Amino acid sequence: MSRVRVLIGTRKGAFVLTADGQREQWEVSGPHFAGWEIYHVKGSPVNPDRVYASQNTSWFGQMMQRSDDGGKTWEAVGNEFKYEGVPGTHKWYDGTQHPWEFKRIWHIEPSLTEPDTAFAGAEDAALFKTTDGGRTWQECPSLRSVKSDLWQPGAGGMCVHTIVIDPKNSDRIFIAISAAGVFRTDDGGRSWMPANQGLKSPWELPDPDAQVGHCVHRIALHPDRPEVLFMQKHWDVMRSDNAGESWSEVSGNLPSDFGFPVEVHAHEPETIYVVPIKSDSEHFPPDGKLRVYRSRTGGNEWEALTAGLPQKDCYVNVLRDAMAVDSLEPCGVYFGTTGGQVYFSGQSGDTWSPIVRDLPAVLSVEVQTLL
Amino acid sequence: MIRVTLPYHLRTLALVNGEVELVLDGRVTLGSVLDALESRFPVLRGAIRDRVTLQRRPFVRFYACREDLSHEPPDTVLPTAVIEGLEPFLIIGAMAGG
Fold first, then answer.
1. CATH classification code of B2-93
2. What's the CATH code of the domain at A218?
3. Do the chains contact at A60 and B51, CB–CB below 8 Å?
4. Do B51 and A80 touch (CB under 8 A)?
């Protein structure tokens, strides 16, 4: 029988939630690494019992953990993230150049084919790769050769927060950086190109043709159609039908097109989800109503999903890595809030209920469908 | 034998309870104790001081015999009471909120 494992990173530890395919009774394990910030926890699609976790505090720095039994036990693996060569400088908040300094790992993306291979997205922005199950990490330095003197930190730091591997071509990888934009490699990370044509950031980037510097919050694709990408930008929800060569806006009738996550339905490539947030200075839902918006048309036409979600006095945020789907039928949709709730819908978003409601602030949610 | 007290998060990381006991050859300095600690518990590399520069992480503090040694250079010889195992060398997390 199918099972589901939900991997949750929070400000004060990691949690592992499991349920059978009915997804009605949930068992909660954790906190793992209590007291540490867990930016991301993600399992290998090849070996689902292999799970990686990014563990960090301001006091003691970055650790990486690996589990080979689905999150029951953990082993600290390599935590040396060294920029290749002379790290160089990037643009600082005041416009001056600032040296690259490693701070943390935001996102881990295990390979779709090799259980010992995974990518890690770092702040300050860089992409690292392991081919030995996390024991050692090497930078893919060519990413930082793409106009990186013009990259600058967003309010949350300058980080590689999104890594998306093309399931039909593992040499093609998309990454997103705040605030630099989307970058694509077609040769497994040896060379990179900016993929930001069509993005508009008039307040931050007066140049309408700026190739880098955009504050992309998240990108997602459906595995059956990897050339179609969806993006939640700082402002604007965007879509690309040509693997990031160009983008067009699909914000449509959203009450706000600011937000963080974007996710794609497991079985319907044109069904996508976002969580509108009021503004860049007010990181909470418009009108105090927590609403997921679903488009069944790949954008532009959106419907509010509210059943089971608080519709008054709600001032939580949903962070960029805190939404995921399972691949059961009907598709399960999950998201976590900065208020510590993890909401679940077993009907593709039609109705919601909290599967946990009092965790520390949720930083990331990933789902494994175990067959 | 040198006794080292680790903060809670580093004890859980190193999978130890209570104090750590280290045996050092040669001079017992701030740097040599940290070298020995990291050698015995490689998981602590990078958690107390920078891997490359060996500079103390900003929110980590070193104390011994009620003295703050955090800003002392690595070749600082530790107090006799620490060298003789009468007092522990303390590594603590700074009070920095959170």
1. 3.10.20.30
2. 2.130.10.10
3. no
4. yes
